[in-house]
Design a protein that fits this description.
It is found in: Cytoplasm. The protein has about 220 residues and is an alpha/beta fold. It is built from five helices and eleven strands, in the order E-H-E-E-H-E-H-E-E-E-E-H-E-E-E-H. The radius of gyration is 15 Å and the shape is globular. Bound molecules: glutamine. The site of glutamine has 12 residues, from strand 7. The site of glutamine (GLN) has 12 residues, from strand 7.
Length: about 220
């Protein structure tokens, strides 16, 4: 499968994401600079990587969400192409309106960088098909703006419709209902603050992240 990683000024997880995608898909992803106005033909999976696009100025992801390539990312998402946003990628997706809610400053203000235990809230998405529902997995986080916020009606809706993909096992950053990752209504866009691409080989301390990429590629066929 052909995949693409969108690279913004300040992305710093783009190469890790590329390694994870190459392992899972068997082909190097296309690295697409954010100022491009077209995606390569036939892309089946788009990744928005972690980092500090535009130095997190204004709000994390707010400026990058208006980069030219994001028009194409939105159009691709509307056509059903899978879009995976990790950390700053999740922030970009909420700022771009592809996912509901917002990522606020962590409740404790500090930057948090450590492994966290996550509950797989639903294995009924392409992104979580490599897991069992309610399974606990370990994936690292590294962020200062990971505190997921949405109004109560939105939270009730995304929970009720099974769009919460991952929850923190304990309060990590103040996120509403411990939400760590969500999918859109169509199920083809996932945003998550933890970094699966940082848990794909024994040297990382585990492979729970690899299971996301392998499950996703299998589900997409
Ligand atoms: N690792 C990351 O993607 C960092 C995300 C973001 N800029 C934050 O610190 O909240």
């Amino acid at each position: 499968m052909k995949s693409a990683v969108i690279v913004f000024p300040g992305s710093n997880c783009d190469r890790d994401m590329a390694v994870a995608l190459e392992q899972a898909t068997g082909a190097k992803p296309h690295m697409v600079w954010h100022r491009e106005t077209e995606l390569p033909d036939g892309i089946g999976l788009i990744a928005l990587p972690g980092g500090f696009s535009y130095g997190d100025y204004l709000r994390s992801g707010a400026i990058g969400a208006n980069s030219p390539i994001m028009r194409e990312v939105k159009a691709a998402a509307d056509r059903g192409v899978a879009v995976l946003g990790v950390c700053n990628g999740f922030q970009l997706l909420t700022e771009a309106g592809l996912l509901p809610g917002a990522l606020l400053r962590n409740a404790g203000i500090d930057f948090i960088c450590r492994d966290v235990a996550l509950k797989v809230a639903s294995s009924q998405t392409a992104f979580t098909s490599g897991y069992q529902s309610d399974e606990t997995i370990t994936i690292p986080v590294a962020h200062h703006d990971g505190n997921y916020f949405a109004d109560n009606d939105t939270l009730d809706r995304i929970e009720g419709e099974g769009h919460v993909a991952f929850r923190y096992d304990e309060s990590v950053n103040g996120s509403a209902r411990n939400i760590a990752g969500i999918v859109n209504a169509a199920g083809n866009v996932l945003g998550m603050m933890p970094h699966p691409e940082r848990m794909i080989e024994p040297a990382h301390g585990g492979s729970d992240g690899k299971r996301l990429f392998d499950g996703l590629v299998q589900a997409l066929g």
